[in-house]
Amino acid sequence: MVCERIDSINRCCASSVDVKITITLVPQSFPGFRGARVKKIGLHIYCLGNIALMLSSCTWSPGQPLARPESAASGSQYYRVDAAGLLSRSKIHLERPNLLPREAMPLGNGRLGAAVWSENGLTIQLNRVDTLPHRLSPGQLHVPGLSALTSASDYSGLLDLYNGEFVERGNGMTATIYVQPHSDVVIVDVTGANPKVKQEAQIALWSPRKPRASVSGKMGALAESWKDDSEPGASGRRFGSLAALAAAGRDVSIQGKGDLEVDASFFPDSTGHFRILVAAPAYTGEEPPSMLAEHALRDVDTRSHKLWWHAFWNRAGLIKVSSADGWGDYMENLRNIYLFTAAAENGGAYPGSQAGIADLFSAVKDTHQWDPAAFWHWNLRMQISANLGAGIFEANAPYFNLYRANLENMSAWTRQHMQGRPGICVPETMRFNGAGIEYETSDSEKPVIGLNCDAESKPYYNARTISTGAEVSLWIWQQYLQTQDRSFLAENYPVMAAASRFLLDYEKPGQDKRMHTTTSNAHETQWDTADPTTDLAARHTLFAATLQSAQLLSRDSALVGELKEALKNIPPFPRTQESGTLSLLPESADANSHDVIASSYEPGAPQHNVENIGLEPVWPYGLIGPDSPLKAVAQRTFMHRPYPTNQDWSFDPIQAARLGRPDELQQTLIKLTKTYQKYPNGMASWGGSSGEFYIEQDAVVATALQEALAQDFDGTIRIARGVPANWKMEGTVFLRDRMRAHVLVEDSVCRMLVIEAGSTGTVKLENPWPGMPVIVEETGSNIPLVKGSSERILEMRVHAGKSYIVHQASRTANSAPVETVSGSSTGHARKLGDNSIGLSAQ
């Protein structure tokens, strides 16, 4: 319920009578909100066989409006965010109906996803992440009667990110579609229909699916279950899909139509209003489908989705980008679409995305370009990073669970496939149950089986990619650094320790007395080579993070000793020519200023993919920054990277931000978008069927914008290193120690900086105005922490819960303007050249 859960109403419907009840409650606070109190709740109870479908509405006490969630990222006295106004800039407008699957709009609650388009009036495909191993859809909903709306000459539609709903209008009708946050139910709410015209709805599957159709009172369901026991690496677990159809209106009738369809027919009420409800809860075949469906449909309300989404947007770090050419605004839109999908697909046991695809919003039935049972880590990394910078840490929970819950399975796989070694070799492409198997059936008549973390496999893309466990551990450590959640670190530390033990065992001494990993893959680009740069960066990061974690948690003293020693013996990054013959150069080659970081100690080895491995130390591993002796060679490596802006997952914009190259950040973001962002929902097209949407490019945009505005990967806060000169950027970035930076940058100059401290300690800040004297004051106290210092690195003692304004000494804090970040809807599809977000009338 929106206001208060009510579970004591007897479900004793004997007919389809529509009963309206008004319940007056003793006013009480709404949990999680300040100041909001309930006066009364209105309930419509529709009888659906043996269940009562409760549709709620709330009346709030006069003079006490709904308050902001207590967790809102509200900024400070100098910085405020109007989330509703700002998000209105990112509404996706449809000036004509989205008739094709490739034009579908995404909705979801984290567990249940939906792709919504206007074919046959209205079509909604339901998707879940737990219908493994093939990610089979629970079905599609069709509402042909809405053709009267979608064929209207005055049609308009929009995806409202702030409210979490898709709204269509036309011919006097309005259809609002959303997914409930607390139960896995998609609701189609229609007003303005002709009360005399019978409406129909169907939930359908397709061959060769074999569901069982059933009808129970005023509800019908399609349910199917199966066992994961036929493919390589099978888990032996049971899975299933369930979709149940119900409607709220007059004279509701439900009937099965063969084995693949359930139909509903009904009339709108006297006002022209009706609702269609489709429940698609988790299902394994172990419980009666009717019981699960009835439970999901029991408590339906019409506002909880808005409150859920408002709370999400009020705690996320939002960024506004403006530019005269429109590209800055376009990138802001793509970032907000990413954040929307991150919340809508990451609420289950596993990540909603695999292979960079937003599977929970698929519009192409059961078609999948890549093995739907396997997760590709390379295509998850930018999503994890984007979630961290935006402060939506909960969206990373399925990712961490994927590896933590499979720790024992990965250990067993490592012993069996990596010559009995201890610890874990984390498969780069890993089945949901920890098996290092990639089973591809879409590209050829004969299935292709690729083994990951397998010592006996033929050379293959990820057969001996051994750095993945280190990167999983990097993100564990990064999330801990930001949240300071020691229980989270303790829960996930065993993954870090196991990954360390494996790499400690895999590395062997060479004649130079350093420790080497040979043979090993430079990810997918070079196979079975010597000391790949991915391994070198991974070992540096993993060993240091595990060592610090073990000391924090008072664990594994013997392992700590091994790690300290191992960190001394990692070879330097390999060097090669910036162009021409790729041969190994000595470390002293930096003196001639023509060398770059190579993919491995065999720079000329064959290339099998288009990855810029030499830039891995820059991002994600964060080993090279402005104060690093490798800064110059990293800059050359970027400018002479072998595969510039290639693939929708290209990390070029993120690495440009890390290296302080705003022009290249802008150029690469625009090029990637022009090349790959082909769908009106803002997502990318890489391959596969049209209507299988890639989210990884939007995640690259999100991460790059955050890194452009503020970064602290090496413990020093740096502001506006990647903001293009012709962009105005303002927003919030989450940093270490529960800290948030609120920043306004215009004309390449930081105009405002407010730092909110999440814990007490010393903060290092690179002077945002190089060479200029700076003052740092605690807001409201006028007590300077830093008074007129022009040092390049400023140090200040901050206290948890306090805000600090950083400004040039020539301007007092009291004269600093109050910055309120807001915006308004464009009212039309956003279009730049051949790219668009939304659908134009023409």
Termini distance? 42 Å
Q: Would you count the extended β strands for me?
A: 47
Q: Which percent range describes the beta-strand content?
A: 25-35%
Radius of gyration in whole Å, from Cα? 28 Å
Number of distinct helices: 16
Average pLDDT: 90
Structural class: alpha+beta
Low-confidence spans: 1-75
Helix content: 10-25%
- Widest beta sheet: strand line-up: 5-10-11-12-13-20-17-16-15
User: What is the overall silhouette?
Assistant: globular
Major sheet: size, sense and barrel closure?
Answer: 9 strands, antiparallel
Give the assembly state of these chains.
Answer: single chain
Report on this model:
This protein is an alpha+beta fold and 842 residues long. The radius of gyration is 28 Å and the shape is globular. The chain starts with 17 loop residues before the first strand and ends in a 5-residue tail after the last strand. The relative contact order is 0.10.
Brief write-up:
The chain is 23% helix and 29% strand. By secondary structure, the protein is an alpha+beta fold. The relative contact order is 0.10.
Strand-helix topology:
Blueprint: E1 18-24, E2 38-48, E3 51-60, E4 79-81, H1 83-88, E5 92-94, E6 105-108, E7 112-117, E8 123-128, E9 139-142, H2 147-150, E10 156-160, E11 165-170, E12 173-179, E13 185-191, E14 199-204, E15 212-216, E16 219-227, E17 238-248, E18 250-256, E19 261-267, E20 274-279, H3 289-298, E21 299-301, H4 304-315, E22 319-323, H5 327-345, E23 353-354, E24 357-358, E25 374-376, H6 381-390, H7 397-404, H8 407-417, E26 429-431, E27 437-440, E28 448-451, H9 468-483, H10 486-506, E29 508-509, E30 515-516, E31 518-522, E32 526-530, H11 533-553, H12 557-567, E33 575-577, E34 595-597, H13 631-639, H14 652-658, H15 662-676, H16 696-709, E35 710-711, E36 716-719, E37 727-735, E38 739-746, E39 749-756, E40 761-766, E41 774-778, E42 784-789, E43 793-798, E44 803-808, E45 819-821, E46 830-832, E47 835-837
Parallel strand pairs: 3-21, 4-45, 36-40
Antiparallel strand pairs: 1-2, 2-3, 5-10, 6-7, 7-8, 8-9, 9-14, 10-11, 11-12, 12-13, 13-20, 14-19, 15-16, 16-17, 17-20, 18-19, 22-37, 23-24, 25-26, 27-28, 29-30, 31-32, 33-34, 35-36, 37-38, 38-39, 39-44, 40-43, 41-42, 41-44, 46-47
Helix pairs in contact: 5-16, 6-16, 9-10, 9-11, 10-11, 10-12, 11-12, 14-15, 14-16, 15-16
